[in-house]
Amino acid sequence: MVNGDAEGVFPTHPLSLPRPGHSLHSDATAYGLPPSSVPTASVQAPSSKIAVIPLGVGSGIATGNVAVPGAEDATPTYSVTGYGGSPSKVLPNRAIVQVDAHGDWAYIPAIDSGQEGVIRDSSFTVYCIDDRGVKTKTVVTVTTHDLDVGYRTTVGNGSVTGRLSVPDGVLVFSPGIGPGKGSLQTNANGTFLYTASDDVAHGETQTFTIVGTNAFGNVLTVAALSLVPKPNGEPTHVRPGAVKPFEVDSIGIVRGHVHGSDPTADGPGMTYSVTDHGGAASAKLGSGAIVNVDASGRWTYIPPSAGEVLADSFTIYVSGRDGAKTTASVRLAMPKMLDIGYRTTLSGDNQVYGSLLVPAADKGLLTFAKAGDAPEGVSVSADGTFTYIGETAAVFDVVGTAFGQATVVARITATPAAAATAAVDAGLTEVTVGGSGRRTVFTPTGEWTTTVTDPNGGVIADVGASRYGAGVGYVVAQPKAKGTVTVTRTATGAGPATSTFVIGYESTAAPTAGFYPTETFTVTFYDARGASVTKSYTF
Fold first, then answer.
1. Which tens digit of pLDDT belongs to each residue from 444-493?
2. Three-class SS of residue 135?
3. Of 51, 108, 111, 410, which has the maximum CB count within 10 A?
4. Are 315 and 327 in contact (CB under 8 A)?
5. What is each CA distance from 444 to 163, 508, 537, in whole angstroms?
6. Exposure of 214 in the CB half-sphere (CA atoms within 13 A)
7. DSSP letter string, 31-73
8. Is the pLDDT of residue 119 over 90?
């Protein structure tokens, strides 16, 4: 005689074997998992503890059997909600538990249970009642982890086929949320096919979920996938200079070409930028240079007209039509400074007409205007012609604009005929106001102040004449000096016109037997009409 418990429930044998064809198993080896990571479950009768039996697979799904041996003519009914209740339910941690007519149970964890690492000792009860009214119940305790459904995919150009790695027969699968573009087809056995639509770009990621439904209608998300249905091939480029050298024209403008190709594009569609992928085609560098690249990869470098640039560089960003990216670096060693000359013509007593000397190849590249601080009476046209109307000499800057970027391109000295009070070749005079040629071991420098007077009323330009040709500014000659000469205009005056310069010299000569060598250099000052005066300096 078998005695039941207080509820009239008869205990099951703790290690009852499953029915034929339903042996307990673990697929951990197939998924490459160590034994410690395999989900486990224990089966216990109401009156005793049961040994732990390793079950389940790498996905975290645990399965087992709690069949109750009984009389051959007895028909059991299993439930997880109570005697005669539902064979399936959702636990508070969102796991689905179920049991079939043979006592085979399954524990399907949620994709995010809220428990980090291990889902430990999650329990549910399997209730059994047969057609004779005999009741038993078994508590199943599962230790596992969040649902982790692996998948294998094969990517084509615009489609992805795959298969979920889950035990057969536990769930059937269907599309969940997404994708945003394209279509998703799933099969009950876990295979799926994603097909991209035409508006999915190369390299663009598509995200979607797949849900699983058990035999009793419970639904849960089993996988969230992010796929790139149209992978990118990197665009290629030939670095500038590998095809042909840079081209430098007579005023210092440099031109070159970056060649790009995209193996994944279905036709031409490369884009180029000098600021970032998808950025602007032109920019002004820190050196003051202007750079631009056109739709064919041809680039232009317009150097600054003032200062000193020992080296300059910029990056060209190459983008394929479908999102592929690469870059090309352009490096220029000691680029020539922008050197645009000019010529002038006098008309009447107080008018000067002139034009910038722009090479034919550069016509239309730059548009010109006067700088904001130009004196009254100056006008500059977009083509580089200019006019000055006034009674005294004027010095002004011309600004050039290319590709939306502006920079100073020339400094003009205009002297109207009305300013001349003597012959053109009357010459200049100079007076040395002060200076010092003292030298010590610690201060190998000298400084002189020189004032140049022009009887024709012209102010000497504060610019090295070697840049614009004799006829304006100054020229330094160093036949017996190896150091550095600096010339800076510090003041101007009128009636007659005077120009005051500070001449600096820093010697690099070494002493011989305790004595320093004598060094000399000259500075020749030119006015706008070609007259000049030369001053010698001894250090």
1. 777 888 888 776 656 777 777 544 444 467 788 877 777 888 888 888 77
2. strand
3. 108
4. yes
5. 82, 8, 15
6. 21
7. GT--GGGS-EEEEE-TTS---EEE-B-TTS-EEEE-PPP--TT
8. no
Return d(Cα 408, Cα 410) in angstroms, integer.
6
First to last CA, the chain: 129
DSSP single-letter state for residue 419: G
Write down the number of H helices and E strands in the chain: 1, 40
Those residues with Cβ within 8 angstroms of residue 471's Cβ, 6 or more apart along the chain or in another chain: 465, 526, 527, 528, 529, 530
- Expressed in percent and rounded to 5, the helix, strand and coil fractions of the chain are 5, 45, 50
Tell me if residue 467 falls in helix, strand or coil: helix
In terms of Cα–Cα distance, which of 356, 365, 409 is closest to 385?
356
Tokens 């083509």 locate to 383
For residues 492 and 500, is the Cβ–Cβ distance under 8 A?
yes
User: Which H or E run includes 44?
Assistant: strand 40-44
**C-alpha neighbours within 13 Å on the C-beta side of residue 17:** 4
Amino acid at 346: L
Helix (H) or strand (E) holding 452: strand 445-454
SS3 at position 296: coil
- Tokens coding 504: 């600096």
Alpha helices in 395-453 (DSSP H): none
Residue 159's pLDDT band (boundaries 50, 70, 90)?
confident
Helical (H) or strand (E) element with 186: strand 183-186
Contact, 328 vs 315, CB < 8 A?
A: yes
CA angle, 293 as apex, 287 and 298 as ends, to 5°?
120
pLDDT tens digit string along 320-379?
766 667 788 888 877 777 878 888 877 666 788 888 888 888 888 999 999 988 898 899
Q: Which two tokens stand for residue 164?
A: 């979920």
| Dist. CA 357–CA 253, nearest whole Å | 14
Q: By C-alpha distance, which of 62, 71, 78, 75 is closest to 26?
A: 62
List pLDDT tens digits, range 170-193.
788 888 888 888 888 888 888 888
